[in-house]
Records
---
Amino acid sequence: MSAVAQPRRTRNSRLVRALTAAGTGAAVLALPLIGAADASAAPSTTTAASTPATTPAGYPNNLDGWIRESLAIMAEKHIPGTYNGIHRNIIRESSGNPKAINLWDSNAAKGIPSKGLLQVIDPTFNAYHVAGTSFDIYDPVANITAACNYAAARYGSIDNVFGAY
């Protein structure tokens, strides 16, 4: 083939190839990180479109609303705790993910993984369940209220918990 018929390579094509390879590499590196964020969460059965804007009690269906609804129930049942104490512990335990599940600690090794916003194990949830809340450990309000009931019995209040409990 003569030199005239051969496609001419420019420096730009080498740069484009390098940038494409770098972009692909970054995407490949990011995929495990994106997946890792959800690896500890149980699969969600609801979509954003089907998630109601409020809870049945009329609170916003988000972390703020779940905490506020739990505090209202706790006040009725004389369970101590504050918004800040609950919020601080939720962020440390689950980052606000109501479907969080710990599959690696000593509880998980025993077959009873910690679950939900405040990472409660099933026996603790059952023992400290608060009447009037769901029996679903992944229900945000039930999880918060049971965990606060447990923390009140063990530490005086969820406000006194500053680490794994």
---
Amino acid sequence: MDLQSMRRTAVPLHAEVAEVLRHQILSGSLVSGTRLPTLHKLTEQLGVARMTVVQAMNTLEEEGLIEKHSGRGTFVKDVKRPRKHTLQLKMEISQIYAMVDHLKVSVRKKFAAIEKTDDGRYFRYLRRIHAKWGKPFCQVDIKLDDRIFEKAPERFEEEIVVTVLKDLGVSITKARQNVTISYADFAMAEALGIKVNSAVFRVTREFMDGEGQLIYSAILYYPSDLLEFEMEFTVD
């Protein structure tokens, strides 16, 4: 990972490191009590000087986001996170289908695994990068019921999952989607070819079956300059 090439112009390197960790703490990705990697580990992972990491950690400690314990390590503090106002909109499932129908993307990179959940069910976990217009368009983390995956494994590995579910006639009785603004960490910036700490749309999506069980979920990350949302309201 070449953090130097991914940093924003004129932003000090230690500030980029601190900003990534700050976003993760305030968003809840790094929960209270989490032990952060050692200075040596972070230095190796990011390919930066030890002093750069030290400066970043000192900044976060001054802000009250982390605390250092001699001999034990550095931990995330229990901090007050910003409250968000939620704008709730009702949509038909057909609108989600229509939203992805026009997307023509290719899978550039992919990773898949299978895991057994506590309730004895098996799920496929897929992480991939979708490309459009010749460049990375979206990073997707997918969790899909293995029984459904096995109905069309080749299609699920190469196509948009929502479209395949629709084509297979999989019964969906409940669905929800949430859109927030997030920020690219080091790995995501490298995967999507964007700058560290660039704004990204974070879309979480869940589909449930007739018994109320989760059969599909996904977290999608879009660079903010490649996506926009448009809503049209009917007026009585």
---
Amino acid sequence: MLAYTYVEKGKFALREKAIPRLQDPQDALVRVTLASICTSDLHILHGSVPRAVPGVTVGHEMVGVVEAVGPQVTAVRPGDRVAVNVETFCGRCFFCEHGYVNNCTDPNGGWALGCRIDGGQAAFVRVPYANQGLTRIPEGVSDRKALLVGDVLATGFWAARIGEIHPGDTVLILGAGPTGLCTLLCALLHAPGRVIVCEKDPQRRAFVRAFAPQALAVGPEEVVEAVRANSAHGGADAVFEVAGSPESFRLAWLCARPNAVVTIVALYDAPQVLPLPDMYGKNLTFKTGGVDGCDCGEILRRIAAGELDTEPLLTHTYPLTRIEEAYALFAARRDGVIKVAVDCQA
């Protein structure tokens, strides 16, 4: 089968590999119908993920059909359409039992697929701990609507859940990339009074206005005033930093009201500095990632109910045989791209 492979820092390549086999009683084999490209894949390409293993098949956003299961897999069976969770988690350790599945203590716990073990930018993928790692897609939910459930939408859902949004709050989201847009969708589920999205790219601000007209989309030079004008207590009640730059990190604490919650969703390429003398007295609470992707069942139920729809984010589709073109488009943010769907059977 064809598999997009991490060769070395700065190099991915489409390679021929054997179809994976079940290795553990809790494994499942999934025929990948659609995959997507994530910014985290670019972090691997750029050498920013030290745990990524050269030779691994990349890709951790995918949906497909179960082909085979190990004898201990009971949650799914062959023929089921499934969303694949970005995280591998045992479900039994201290962290899993408390919902902190990103910190699962299993050797393959956390982000393994497409990083430390073969992922899903390929025709087939082996999913460990399939009882936790696969979620059946409800009838009436298409592959395209389910594609982002296991990672970027799970990230937005998790961020909104831990961000302590209350009805009527002013919410600030820094960054209108795919994760920022998913955070926006999930924040709206909590009935905020006002959502402000800060994004430097004019095309993406225009996308926000069309995608979620109830949100206010502004540039970085406008955001401080926009927050002040749209909040009751001198700043945003809940802030989500999804852009991942030093400037967006600064704006996150600057735009928060005293005693606000600042949720750091972004993955940074370098350390950030907390200017504690400037922040003194704001009494901020910072919460940091990565995603605890244990809400996929609820997310899919909300998609089926019409409460969430990320299909408009899939602006481009490529066959697996042209995945290098898809990466080039996504990395350069050309042609208004938000997310790219990859047909892994083409």
---
Amino acid sequence: MRRNFLILAAMMMLSLMANAQLFKDRTNGQVTMGFDLFTDINTGSKYENFDLRTINQGFSTYLTYNFPMGESKHTVSLGAGITFHNYYMKNAWLSEPYNHVITFKEDANVKKSKININYFDIPMEVNFRIVDKFKISFGAKVSFLMSSKSKVIGYVMGDGHKWEIKYNEINALESIVYSAFARVGYRCVNLFVGYQFNNSFKQDRGPEILPFSIGIGIRAY
């Protein structure tokens, strides 16, 4: 199973690399397509009755329009994209996501529990091409809440049956969040880090989730 997953992931990465380069070539380098795979580490204060898993994988994709900086190969980019964050809880689940104040229920019978938060992003970044195939980028983005949901799998009802429960909305989330990020890239592959400045939840209405993201990205060079 693990071997098949690695082969599938490698095939997807190769396909994304080819498509990103082809897209940029067809737009004469003015438009860039990018894809990111990352994990979120929560830097917010520990919540009273749950903790996040160490690895919280997420995904984002984006398009940017590139403005040259004079006669140099450096660019300023403005774009749009979407980001999907997944936060996995340990021995707890969101049993009442529609409440005014969000709390998580402790339960040792939880097998899998997560919340999913999705944003529409407007990123802006400055790209410095050090040599032909090596690039360093710094940027920021404002993200608008699109959707959210929660899911739990486990023996959480106390009736001896294994349940899978999904909710299609989580209350008390901030509608706008702000982040900064940096990238170091060679050819189509780049490593990046990002940090969200404000809490994913409204003040005093949920846990403090301030994700620090680390991941790998694919985009044309």
